[in-house]
Specification:
Blueprint lengths: L3 H14 L7 E4 L10 H7 L5 E7 L2 E6 L3 E6 L4 E6 L9 E6 L5 E6 L5 E6 L23 H8 L6 H5 L10 H11 L12 H20 L40 E5 L2 E5 L6
Antiparallel strand pairs: 1-6, 2-3, 3-4, 4-8, 5-7, 6-7, 9-10
This protein binds a DNA duplex (16 and 16 nucleotides) through helix 5.
DNA sequence: CGGTGGACCTGCTGGC
DNA sequence: TGCCAGCAGGTCCACC
């Protein structure tokens, strides 16, 4: 479900409400998510601790706890986080419920259970096996055309697969990969070894533009994405190619095509993208 | 070594 | 109506 803009939108919502709250209890209704949730560790290191801040790296959310633990959450494809007054009853797929005193709770809901939840320490966080290999943040200065050019040297995979590789750059999922390639005028099938410096500069700019615009619109909601307050995003109205196969290109009217790459749908305009 | 295909899960949709 | 294939916003690992 969520790519970087959706996770960042959720982070901002959590950051407004969680710092200063104390985790007074944890209920685990289903521990088998992407990995088995360590319930004993949550009881020992999360319960009774005060939340100090909420950060994001790639599509991971970091809930920092006093004094030195970090609750790491990942939403997978269908995960949702909800903050609000305690629910009257549990809904199907409500897997983790963190009580924050008598009047507030944080609820993790995930239909397909590709999400993750684990604890680590501040010191070990960035070296954690799930995080240490991650590439730069796309909205950081470290992510540049020159960087992409360097990383693509000697590789032959399609550019769509390349930009979705989290060791190259994080946060670019299936929607925003297609959108960025459209803005950059590149076909998703182009082999990376054949792209020139100017292509990488254009693609880098396109990725930054698309992700920032999507964050500004609070993400993309199809059927079910909502933020931590239950609100939908609005970027679905701005999509140029994703999910629009058979519809006219907004730039020149040619029909948008859908192809499958690495098992995922890619969308492009055969006239605008080469 | 790099690159691909499938696995992990549930639910919805569209075609027959 | 009922069934079944195909599809869904992510990540990881076995295999060529």
């Amino acid at each position: 479900m969520p790519e970087l803009p959706e996770v960042e939108t959720i982070r901002r919502g959590l950051a407004e409400r969680l710092p200063g709250q104390i985790i007074t209890g944890v209920r685990v209704r289903q521990a088998q998510l992407r990995h088995l949730v360590d319930v004993a560790a949550l009881q020992e290191h999360a319960v009774g601790r005060t939340i100090t801040s909420v950060e994001r790296r790639a599509k991971y959310l970091f809930v920092h706890l006093q004094p030195d633990h970090v609750l790491v959450l990942h939403l997978g494809m269908t995960g949702r986080l909800w903050v609000g007054p305690p629910a009257d009853q549990d809904a199907p797929h409500d897997h983790l419920i963190f009580s924050l005193g008598p009047e507030l709770e944080l609820r993790f809901h995930d239909t397909r259970r590709f999400g993750m939840c684990f604890l680590t320490t501040t010191a070990a966080l960035l070296q954690h096996p799930r995080l240490h290999h991650l590439g730069p943040e796309p909205l950081s200065e470290a992510f540049s055309g020159a960087y992409l050019l360097e990383r693509a040297k000697g590789l032959h995979k399609p550019v769509k697969n390349f930009v979705m590789d989290a060791t190259v750059v994080v946060g670019v999922g299936n929607i925003y990969a297609s959108e960025s390639l459209f803005l950059a005028g590149l076909r998703p099938t182009r082999a990376v070894g054949r792209l020139r410096r100017q292509h990488w500069e254009r693609l880098c700019m396109a990725i930054k533009e698309v992700l920032q615009a999507a964050i500004d619109h609070h993400g993309t909601s199809f059927s079910d994405y909502v933020d931590s307050e239950g609100r939908q995003g609005h970027f679905q109205n701005q999509l140029l190619v994703y999910g629009r196969d058979g519809e006219p290109c907004r730039r020149d009217g040619h029909l948008i095509k859908r192809i499958v790459q690495a098992g995922r749908s890619s969308y492009y305009c055969p006239s605008c993208q080469h």
